[in-house]
Amino acid sequence: QVLTGLIPYHYKHDIAVLFAKCKGENPAIPPAVSQTLAKLMQDCWDSNRHQRPCLGRIKEVVQREMDSLRKRPL
User: Residue 63: left if φ>0, alpha if ψ -120 to 50, beta else—which one?
Assistant: First the structure.
């Protein structure tokens, strides 16, 4: 949502989202998303909540990505 401005599953009805999540489906990751952020998103979707990254790790990865974007030439 932050990267695209779209609500996740914007193309599905609420009940379809429920069934998709029950089947373990996640929204498509836009191609413009870096591999690092894509991996973080996938890690956050882990069905085992104990395997998901903690908030500190999420903050660290996002901060690093933001810093690298700031350093890129326009």
Answer: alpha
Say what the pTM is: 0.79
Q: Distances from the Cα of 47 to the Cαs of 5, 67, 71, in angstroms?
A: 25, 30, 35
Count CB neighbours of 48 within 10 A: 6
pLDDT band at 69 (very low <50, low <70, confident <90, very high): confident
Of the candidates 29, 23, 22, the one whose C-alpha atom is nearest the C-alpha of residue 6 is 29
Asked whether the predicted pLDDT for residue 3 surpasses 80, the reply is no
CA distance 58 to 47: 17
The residue with tokens 């498509």 is 28
